[in-house]
Amino acid sequence: MAEPALSVELEQGAPIPLAARFECGEGELLALVGPSGSGKTTILRAIAGLIRPAAGRVRANGAVWVDEHTYVPPQGRRVGLVFQHYALFPHLTASGNVQAALPPTLPREMRASIAGELLEFVRLGGLEDRLPRQLSGGQQQRVALARALARDPQVLLLDEPFSAVDQVTRRRLQRELAQMRQRLKIPIVLVTHDLEEAATLADRMVVLHHGRTLQSGPPFDVLARPQSVEIARLVDYRNLFTGRVVAHEAGCTRLAWLDHVLEAPLAEAFAAGSEVSWGILPAHCVLHRRDRPSRGEHENPVAGVIGEFLPFGENAAITLHVGGRQDVELHFSVPTHVAARNGLRAGVEAGVSLLREGIHLMPHDRVDPAARPR
Amino acid sequence: MDWTAFTLSLKLAAATALLLLPLAVGLGHALAWRKFRGKSALEAIVALPLVLPPTVLGYYLLVTFAPTSAFGQLYQQLVGATLAFSFEGLLVASVIANLPFAVQPVQRGFEAIAPEVREAAWLCGMSRLRALWKIELPLAWPGLLTAAVLTFAHTLGEFGVVLMVGGNIPGETRTVAIAIYDRAQALDERAAGVMAATLLVLSFVAISLVYWLDRVRRRHG
Fold it and tell me: Where is pLDDT greater, at A16 or A48?
C-alpha cells in the first residue's frame, strides 16, 4: 500500500501529554474530536511545526518533518493552518494577507493576481482591498483559508475554524468547505469539539482524550459503535448499562439486564457468563405506540415510567426509568405530535423496544451515571 | 537663550534615540517573546534607571570612565581620548539612563501582538527576521514611536547624570538643562526663564504625543 499523504505519531509526557497516532490520505478530511484540553490543538501545532514533540514522527508526502534526528521548522513545511481566530495580519488588506504567503521572489503583479484568484476561490472577489477589521467573521475566515492555500500546502490544518462565527454563517461555511474540499487533493485535518460537525464533514474521525488517540474510523461507525465506555462517553453516548452475557445462540448473543433477557447481535468475543457494558443509541429505541401497536413490539420490549419529558422543538426528549427504577435511565426521543397523541408526560408508563441491531456491547467498565461527563 | 547648549541638547537627544532604538527593538523583542534564564534580572536592570538617583548612575559611570579604571584605559588605548567630560561619554551615559524609556514601550508594543499572528507569519514561509520586518514592526510601530519620543524628551531634560559625567563644558557637555542651572546660579533670571519655558513646552508636546500614540495603538489593537 502506498504511504499515506500524512502520517503522524506523537509521544510526550509534558507539558501536554500526547500519545497520538493517525494517518490521513490525499483528499481525505480527518476530524480530530475530543473535549477541551484533549490535545487536539497541540497535535495540530506539532504537525505545523509550531511545537516540537518530545518523540514521534510526522511525515508528509514521504518527507520527514519530525523524527528523532529531524525537525523542519514551520517555514520549511508547506503547511496551511487556519487558526481558530484566524490570526490575520491586521495591517494588511485581504489581498496583502494572501500575498504574504506567496514567495517574495514572485513579481509583484503576479502575486497580486494569484491572491485575487485565491480570494475568488473562497468567494471573496471584490473585497481584495479591505482590511481584516472591515470584514465580517465569516469573510475573515475565508481570507485565512485563502492565505493557508496560498502556500500551496501539502497539508491543510483547520483549528476549530467555525467556532468564532454565528450559526447561520457556520452552516454556510461548512457547506462551502464540503464543496471546496472536492477540489483540494491534499490531506485536511479538522479539529473540532462538535461531533455533529465531524460527522457531517469528515471522512474519518479520530477520538482523542488526554492526548491519546482512542478510536478512529468513519464517523458513523465511531458514533454508533464506540470500542469502550470511555469513548462512548466522549461521543455523547448516553444510554450505557451493565449486563451479563447469557449465551451465544441462534445467531445472536443473549444478554441479561435487570429482569430482561435481551437479544443482541452476535458478539462471541464476550464469553458467556461475563459482565459487559452495553449501550444503545436513542434512534434504536422505538416507542410502543398506543395509537398504532405493531409487531415490532416483540423485539426486546422493556417498560418503565417516564421521568423527564422535555419538548424540544419538533422532538420531545424522554427519560424512561426502566422497571420504575430511578437509577436506570433510558434516553430517547419521539416527534412531539406522537408524544401528544400517546399522552406522554412525566409520570406516565410507557414501553419501548430496544432494536436488536442497535445493541452494542463493550468491555465491562464502571457505568456510573454520576461519573458521566456533563 | 544659550543656543549652543540648546543645539547640543537636541544633538544629544537625537543621537541617543537613534542609538537606542535598535537596541530597544532587540531587548524589547527578547523580553516580550523569549523565555530565558535571568529574564527577570534583565528586566530589572533595564528598569533600574527609573528608580536610581541620576547622581548614583552618574557616579558609577564616572568611575567606569576614569582613565584609572580598566574600561577607561582600554577606551583610551583604542580611541586616544577619555569618555569622562566629553560628548561621547555623555551619549553613553544618556543611552544607559534612557534604557527603560525606550525598551519598555517597545516591549509593550510587541506584547500586544497576538502570538498566533507571529506564528501565522512563519507558516506563510517568512523567516523570523522577515516576520519581524513585515509583520511585527509595522504592528508595534506606536510602541517604537513612543520609545523615540520619550527618549528624546527625557534626554532633553536629563540633569543629574549629565552633570556628573559631563560637567559643564560649553559646546561639549553643557546641555540646556545644565545651562538653566548655570544661569539661575548666576541670577540671570531672564535667560533661565526663557530656556525653562522652552523645555516645558517641548516636554508637554512630547508627552501629549505619547498619550495620543497610546490611543492610536489601542484603537488598532
Answer: A48
Q: Domain holding A275: CATH number?
A: 2.40.50.100
Same domain as A222, residue A87: yes
Residues in chain A: 374
Asked whether A333 and A239 are in contact (CB, 8 A), the reply is no
Asked if A218 and A253 sit in the same domain, the reply is no
Does A172 share its domain with A127? yes
Residue contact A147–B124, C-beta within 8 A: yes
Choose one of A217, A234, A251: the last residue of a domain: A234
Q: Which of A189, A217, A234 is the last residue of a domain?
A: A234
Nearest residue in chain A measured CA to CA from B128: A75
Is there a single domain that holds both residue A21 and residue A125?
yes
Question: For residues A54 and A78, is the Cβ–Cβ distance under 8 A?
Answer: no
User: Does residue A336 belong to any structural domain of this protein?
Assistant: yes
The reply to whether residue A151 touches residue B126, judged by beta carbons under 8 angstroms, is no
* A269/A285 same-domain check: yes
Per the structure, the complete domain to which residue A253 belongs is given by 240-365
| Residue A272 placed within a domain | yes
* Domains contained in chain A, number: 2
The partner residue sitting opposite A151, judged by closest CB among B117, B124, B220, is B124
pLDDT for the residue A368: 54
Class of domain B3-220: mainly alpha
Chain B residues whose CB is inside 8 A of the A80 CB are 123
Instruction: Tell me, yes or no, whether A281 lies in a domain.
Output: yes
| The model's pTM | 0.86
- Shortest distance between the Cα of A151 and any Cα of chain B, in A, equals 7
Mean predicted confidence (pLDDT) in A35-40: 89
| Chain B neighbors of A81, CB-CB under 8 A | 120, 123
Asked if A267 reaches chain B (Cβ–Cβ under 8 Å), the answer is: no
Q: How far is B111 from chain A (nearest CA, A)?
A: 15
A87: nearest CB among B114, B127, B130: B114
Averaged over successive runs of 10 residues, the pLDDT of chain B (221 residues) comes to: 88 95 96 94 95 93 90 90 89 95 96 95 96 95 92 91 88 90 92 92 90 78 53
Residues A255-268: tens digit of each pLDDT? 999 999 999 999 99
d(CA A57, CA A233): 29
Q: What is the pLDDT of residue A81?
A: 96
Residue of chain B nearest A73, judged by CA positions: B122
Chain B nearest-CA distance from A96, in A, is 11
In a domain, A372, yes or no: no
Mark A137-175 as b/e (b = at least 16 C-beta within 10 Å): ebbbbbbbbbbbbbbebbbbbbbbbbebbeeebbeebbe
Confidence (pLDDT) at A144: 96
Shortest distance between the Cα of B98 and any Cα of chain A, in A, equals: 30
- Order the strands of the A275-279 sheet from edge to edge: A260-265, A252-257, A240-249, A275-279, A360-363
Q: Do B120 and A83 touch (CB under 8 A)?
A: yes
